[in-house]
Amino acid sequence: MSSLTFLGTGTSHGIPVIGCGCDVCTSTDERDRRYRSSVLLRKEGYTLLIDSGPEFRLQAIRSELKSLDGVLYTHDHSDHFNGIDDLRVFCNKRHLPVYTSAQVKSSIEQRFPYVINGTAMGIPHLDVAVLSPYEEGPVGPFSVTAIPIIHGRKTIYGYRIDNTAYLTDCSEVPPESLPYLQNLEVLVVGALRDWPHPNHYSVFEATALGDLLAPERVYFTHLSHHLGHAQLEARLKSGFFVAYDQLTITMKD
């Protein structure tokens, strides 16, 4: 048995959006308050993080995170990446394994050079490994496959972890990636808003992907302030759910 906790389910703005007085940003429903998207997976005592956005410190405190064994990065946009320095509490005396693409490794080396091969106290010490597309391999007790997806004009990584897939910031799944997303128990996919966006799936497109892949459950994340939790949840069909911050789900694998 493994679990997945949504540390954050919002877009790059977060919700409430600064200065916005819309119905979602002023909602009293706690499920409409969304930090930047990130998840935590646990299995057999091993804790695996996917992405560390700018609120990672707050997410970790809110979730009472005490230990971390590994990190996967989807891409290097700031809302998924800029909390990297706050990993230091988990690895200022040891090295923390990080797994990502060659492009993101290069971004880490350029933007946060001190976290690579560092020896000083008080900074993160990261061992960054490059994952090749479609090659399944172990990360702790998890079986992980990096799956290329399209984010606007950029190719980034989604991940299959055992029988769970995490595809945030997705505007297209290439045909060659589809075979690696079959027979899923859980699909987590970004659903930004109701109308098209050049870099993200809409609710309609995310629903279509869910219908195509037919996992047991689909959870929408990376939600904008154009989508209220209760209103969206009320119109989803069976097997589709709206994720919210601090929701924990369990998987059989």
Describe the fold and architecture.
The chain is of the alpha/beta class. It has a single domain, classed as Metallo-beta-lactamase, Chain A (4-Layer Sandwich). Helices cover 17% and strands 29% of the residues. It has helices spanning 56-62, 78-81, 88-91, 102-111, 203-213, 229-234, and strands at residues 2-8, 38-43, 46-50, 70-72, 96-100, 126-130, 137-139, 142-151, 154-161, 164-167, 186-190, 217-221, 240-242, 248-251. A seven-stranded mixed β-sheet has the order 6-5-4-3-2-1-14. Strands 7-8-9-10-11-12-13 form a seven-stranded mixed β-sheet. Strand 8 and strand 9 (154-161) form a beta hairpin. It is globular and about 50 Å long. The termini are close together.
Low-confidence regions: none
- Could you tell me how far the N terminus lies from the C terminus, measured between alpha carbons in angstroms? 6 Å
CATH class: Alpha Beta
The CATH superfamily turns out to be: Ribonuclease Z/Hydroxyacylglutathione hydrolase-like
The profile of the biggest β sheet is:
7 strands, mixed
Following the backbone from N to C, one meets helices and strands in this order, namely EEEHEHHEHEEEEEEHEHEE
> What is the CA-atom radius of gyration, in angstroms?
17 Å
Number of helices: 6
Molecular shape: globular
What is the residue-averaged pLDDT? 96
Counted up, domains total 1
Task: Tell me the layout of helices and strands.
Layout: E1 2-8, E2 38-43, E3 46-50, H1 56-62, E4 70-72, H2 78-81, H3 88-91, E5 96-100, H4 102-111, E6 126-130, E7 137-139, E8 142-151, E9 154-161, E10 164-167, E11 186-190, H5 203-213, E12 217-221, H6 229-234, E13 240-242, E14 248-251
Parallel strand pairs: 3-4, 4-5, 5-6, 10-11, 11-12, 12-13
Antiparallel strand pairs: 1-2, 1-14, 2-3, 7-8, 8-9, 9-10
